């Protein structure tokens, strides 16, 4: 006994351990994304081992999932096991080539392990995805430098600096690279190359004083003092008042013993910079000049001789050359005038010295006038033509800076046609191209570009410029095709630049197509752009929007997913993802998707708009499902973020209307702003809501019936009062019927009921348990014609998508009348009469009628269809009546309608019994009807209905010539009965 007990305990313990162990190892994760999310949280909290344990479990379930492999590589990278890290990261890319995170980490792994070529390859793959990532370009340059490939690094740095001229970081890198280069050249003794590098560096950074000082020193080391003086002038032009450059230039002039020139120079500079150091140098130079004067300057001696009357060529030439060289402007102008007197006004040498003097004086207009005169006299002189070309280029640059391209064009054309200097000629052609483009003379621009590419085959910007011009000529498609051809033929680096250029043209062109309504063309161009640059943000946006307009929903979803892949945090793509879910009518899923994004970006208009739209669709979906409370909760949440959204408010009004809360429905729906075409219909709808808001209603109905073969009128009048509430409605109804006829023997045999008055009093209650269920119950008592007792209960269920089903049961105690005949004792056989029986009155019998039935209805926009079947149990027999009906609501007030109906059965429809109209059982009864109602105002609605009933009629008679010869007979026939219902409803 104890052994069995221990055995059971052991089994239960094993089961317990098995259950607990299995539950402990099951983390409840169903997808790789859930594993990835939790692992990243562990890593972020520095819980690396816990993350790794969970990651190994995920990889066992989902091997070769890219994000899980990436995270494992990230773990080993943290542990500095770079071989394991590389192994998992490569597997991550094998599974998903576009795994950007894995490629970024692989760049770090290969960089740390000094596999720089591999690192550069991964950087190139990342640049294919996002060519605008400047950080990647800098990383690639850094890797080239680590690889000791400074040539390629410098080339790439220069090219990318041209692409992004306004990027301050790239500019600093470029300047630093050139600075390091010239410093290395200077240390290595390569002064000429250092000078060339410094010249290029000064073009990029003309405000750096140190560069001017270095290039001056290098020229001095080369023994080229004139070049050093030239650079000192250039430096002071760029940095006016620079103390170091002032001292440097004065020192060089002093070394050349050009003291007067140095003194004049310092006096002029002291106007801008009167520092103590410069004043001291000025005083020192004065002392040196005084000492030199003691040595009898030849210029002074020649001057004294010239003034003394010895005006020979030797003295004049020396004085003129020296005054010009030393910058003695007043003396130089005097000696030029003297030379013109001796040699004439057209001497080339004298005119050239005058031109150089005006240049030194910065008298550009006088210099140009003198140079122009020389050029007209000596058009074939190389130096004059070169100088003339330089002057034209200078004028052109100034005019172009002022935007006067038409005025600048003749100057650059002059230079381009002379072919004096190759560099100057190329610059002139490029400026001519710029002028033509800015003047919108695109044909001449294309011709100029052809000339440039013909004479300068290495011109790198030809494709970019040609595409730009074609785009300006509204030949964007041709420009884009030009880029495509260039992309196909270019190397890896140039391809990226051409793709950038392609996108810069394609995006405005796509936008133009969209604005012009050429949606299909815009879509095609967007797809081309994305094929070249899959990460193009604007390209993806246009592709998504145009695909949506064209109904290309699969492509819409595809590019939305692509956008989320590249820009997972971008609200635009999140909103479009919600649109994809909406198209599949997954409104609830759309809201669940958007909620965390909305919490993150609570003020983003795109996310708010998408959330509002999904909320509206979801609310209307819930309304059709008869769940208005949930619908209102959805809309209230949306309105917290988008409180001024009128569409949401209108949708809230629609929900309230469906829930029979007319006052709230009216309040919210009035925010809607209808168009001109909608205005009357919308106002009509608001009137209908105002009518629904009224809690009291009086209804007056008059029924007038007439037989088809006889002029016999039957009428029923009804008055009722209804008190309406959201949950309960109560109705009191009074029916009145009057009948012609009597009990005398003169009564026609066709009459079936005695004459008189009948009154019926009825009460009715309708209760809505919920938006899905309602119950209606009524009871009535009558004196005559109407059923003595009437009781009905109807249960109705409201289904999704505007379907309704109902079931009802009813009881009626109805009266039946037969004629009573008696023998006339005064009748003599053989007389003139042939019938001795007289009609003496009516026999009345009471019968119980039990009714059970069902109903099905469907509302399709403005049409309501319904079918109903009643099953009657009467005198132990079963009878039926089937009805169909349709209501069309042409107006939007909810009351105005056109109603058509028909029925057939072995019993009349219930209304015939309720209104005390004639009918019969066991034979076919039919009815057709047509009518309608019209809301005159929110307080008054009128109605008119006509029906045509065909029913089986039988009448009993007794005839005979003696009491023993009684002959009873029943006459049968089908009769037509035409009914008119007039209705007036008064609400208040």
Largest sheet: 14 strands, antiparallel, barrel
Mean pLDDT: 83
**Considering DSSP H and I runs of 4 or more, what fraction of the residues is helical?**
55-70%
- Which strand order does the major sheet show? 1-2-3-4-5-6-7-8-9-10-11-12-13-14
What report would you give on this structure?
This protein is of the alpha+beta class and 988 residues long. It has a 14-stranded antiparallel beta barrel with strand order 1-2-3-4-5-6-7-8-9-10-11-12-13-14. A hairpin with a 5-residue loop joins strand 1 (696-707) and strand 2 (713-724). Helix 2 (32-44) runs parallel beside helix 4 and helix 5 runs antiparallel to helix 6. Mean pLDDT is 83; it is low at 10-26 and 742-750.
Summarize the structure.
The chain is of the alpha+beta class and 988 residues long. The protein is 57% helix and 21% strand.
Describe the structure using short key phrases:
988 residues, alpha+beta, 14-stranded antiparallel barrel, 14 strands, 57% helix, elongated
